Amino acid sequence: MAGPFHPPHAVLEGFKERPEALAVQGDRLYIGTSAGSLHIYTVADGPDHPAELLETKKSLCRRSIDQIAYVKDVNSLAVLSEAQVTLFPYPTFSPPTPLVKTKGALCFALNTAVEYQTPDIATPASPTTPSKGKGVPAVVTRLAVGCRRKIVLYSWKDGEPQDVQEITLAHSPRAMVFVSSEVLCWGHTPTDYSLTSLRTSTTVDVTTPIPTASSSGSIGTMGMGALSGLGGYMTLGLGAKAKPCVVGLNDDEALIAKDNNGFVVGGDGKPTRSENIDWPAPPEELALVKPYVFAVLPPGSVPSSQIEGPSTAAPSSFVNSSVIEIRSSLSLSPVQTIPFPPVSAAAPSTTAHAVRLLTPSPSYKSPLFVVSIPTDRTAAAASGHTIWRFSMKPWNRQIDELVETGSYTAALALLDSLDAALIADKERKQQQIRALQAVDNFRNAKYDDAINAFLELNINPAKVVALYPETISGRLAIPQEEWIPLFGGPKPKPPERPSTPQPAAAAEGAGSPKPGEAQGTPKSVESPPRAPTPQGSIRGVLRTGLESIVGAAKDDDAASIRSVRRPPKPDNFHRSVEVLMRYLSDRRPKIAGALAQVHITSAQSHEMPILSATSKEDLLALPDAPLAALTPEELVRFAQIVDTALFKSYLLVRPGLLGPLCRVGWCEVSEVEELLREREKYQEMIYLYNGRKMHDKALSLLRQLSEKETDMRDKLMPTVNYLQRLGPEHLDQIFEHSRWVFEQDRDIAFEIFTSEEAELPKEPVADFLERLDPAICARFIEYLISERGETSQAFHDRLAELYLRMTVSAKKRGDNEGRKQAYEKLLHFIDTTEYYSADRLFGLLPPEDLFEAKAILLGRLGRHDSALEVYAYRLQDFQKAEEYCKRVYKPNSPTATVFLTLLRTYLLPGPSAPSAADLLPPALELISRHSPRLDPVATLQLLPPLVTAQDVRAFLLESLRAPVFDTRVVRNVTKAREDQVARRLMVLQSKRVRITDSRICPQCHKRLGGSVIAVHAPHGEVTHYQCREAFSRKLKEGRA
Fold first, then answer.
1. 460-477 in b/e burial notation, b at 16+ Cβ within 10 A?
2. Which among 490, 511, 495, 506 has a CA at the least distance from the CA of 440?
3. What is the DSSP letter of 167?
4. What is the pLDDT of residues 6-16, one digit of tens each?
5. How far is CA 843 from CA 189, 822, 838, 854, 912, in A?
6. How many CB atoms lie within 10 A of CB 237?
7. What is the pLDDT of residues 950-993, one digit of tens each?
8. What is the rounded distance in angstroms from the CA atom of residue 335 to the CA atom of residue 326?
9. Is residue 385 a contact partner of residue 373, using CB atoms and an 8 Å limit?
């Protein structure tokens, strides 16, 4: 049987007297009868142990025993009989102690609590929330007796009796219960209740909201006469007159019944909860076994569809006997409904029974006893009364059953109300149930609540993502029926077709939406809806007249409105994706921070094992734990799951945000690249490949995209730009993917190796370019020398060799223009730079070609005579020979005689020289133009005999005169300068001015005295300093 209690079992059958009161103390069951007798039984646990009679106290009271309670402080039974409370000591029950002030008693209530005594006030301590106040703890027991228009309070402190307190009331309490140790809630009619403070002796009336319209069709509005004809129930004396029903729920709340509504009120007399109970009929009695409320509902008020177990009645019929409905005091929702006698699968009973809850509200896990009797007189006389025992299931089992039925809110409420000592591993169980509740919220479209719980519980992101369709979760997707087992819940049972619908307890968290209910519609946690009104039932009789007309009109209006206004269907998928993005965006930076603590960044994502290498089962089995408690491998898996799901979410609802996520992150490429390709998000694909170091894929995609372009620069530049950003570690990929770019356009392709974004190793690049084309390699080395300031000999030698090779190969091809350009570059290079090896290059030159290059290299080697012979003999370019001499000539250095060497080359020709007649004119021109740089004696010695003095007359005059003239002029100019300076010094030293007391300023005609003076040239006039300007103007005017 589903529910928190085991099926009730009979502990005593055939009890012929009429029980009026029950009490339980330990394993003792006390039964007070209408004849005033007290029967004492021992009751053992388990259905196989019936109650055993220990003792019978005949005529303990002269009249009916109306109420019994055990007062532990005085070890006595408090018995209400003959409108007075009497204490009978246990176990002798004599002598009795009548409480004389309780004459006219109608009911009583008992409360025991631990209070901390201080000089001023006693502070009560709840069993669940012990008082933190200072003071001496004391066990205080209070016995409140409701009499005619007053309450009499007896109390004991640590077993010592205290003064009796009387509180005058406006009405007579007929039922009462302690809300707290100092507040009583009592009712004087079935609909009127009040609260009385024992400390202040003040009373306030309970105020409740107006009952909702849902209860208008119940039998609570008919009065008890509507039940006439249902059997002999009223004639057996079991509740012929309605009484107030009130029970205490906890230390500050009480439940009262007004008609067929139940309200939870606090110590101030006002409702403490927004929800209330809506019974199908006014309950006949209430009792509490914490945290459950028992209500006895009259026959014919509960549909058969709400009863568990087999039933032979039609689905729309009502139970013809009393029914006990059990509700949770935490949520006020029904959890178990049991007809009497309980339905047996073997032999279902057809006899109607009346039931009474005669046990006072017990404490935690105390058994509850109820009394039942057939409503038929003959059957009642034959079988007598039966006493049933309700035993609560273990807490863990109750919680497990609530979880199995999907009542996660109720399971959490029950778990929160229990002490940690009663539940093993309470915190872990709470987290598990909260996770299941979050899954249920997600299934019911409460996405924000679900995601908030997932975040708070640190749920494995793989499980959260698995709740979404394959477009987001990929291979992690699981069917909806497996969601609950994934989060640690029970596996779904195979579908059954029960003869009756599920009990009301399962209504809160059903596993899937009802047929016809939109997916994601939240389910109510209130009472289940009533069954359709059967033909001829009480409710059907009531639904007549104006009510039926109004109801029909409302139905017609509602149907009309529904036919016209149809609200748009909510887009739950996109809403769920938005919430998922919030979840993933919260997890992403926190996971990145946790990875940073172990020195792992997203830049290393390509070095980690890919997500697809881990099985789906292993990913879903990752722990639900704080990030700080995870290993680096688990953190990496979390990062991959989160980024992949976030990428897919952005792709569906916010594609504009994909770029940053592609560049940096842990997204699994294999799961998203096809999605990007389908949506033609090629730029994002390139970012994604680049971020994961999958450069081959990115470059291959760029080449495919280039085929769609017609402009060459638009076609090639994306690939060039991508290759420019790759570093030296990807050199092979750069070489491989740059080949086709060179085939398309060499100038654009050359930009790959001239970018400043990444510095590539020069020598491998030069080798690659040389294999492509020596001209490209030469261009690259030229770039290195001119732009990068390269000075290494290796690259200079290589460039010279490339020029040489290009020159020779062009000549072989017959490409005169190409040879000319290459040769000019070679000559310019070897003539203007000094960082190459001249002798090495000279050895590579062909013997009968490139003579000018040979001449330059010979000059670099210091062999100026050989270089000049090449110019004069091989090239016969006398101007270049002279220019060569000008370049290398430096006075007072080894090259100071280079002009003489050229002259010697002209005038003393070797075997390979042209005729002497061809060399003499350039020799004479050299002598005439550069005579100052030629040694006169050596030059005259070189001149051939046939050269006349007239041919070298200018040279001879220059050689003989210039040195003597220069020496004499310099000597005379120096002497004249010295004489001039000496004379000026003498003149300046002879000039002076004498100032006396009688000397007058020629400007102002005042004595000079000790004033500052000014002396005027050229005659030495002396004036005051302030008169100098005026006197100077006067002198100038006089001279003019």
1. bbbbbbbbbeeebbbebe
2. 511
3. E
4. 888 888 988 98
5. 129, 19, 9, 10, 21
6. 13
7. 777 777 777 666 555 456 656 777 888 899 999 888 877 777 88
8. 6
9. yes
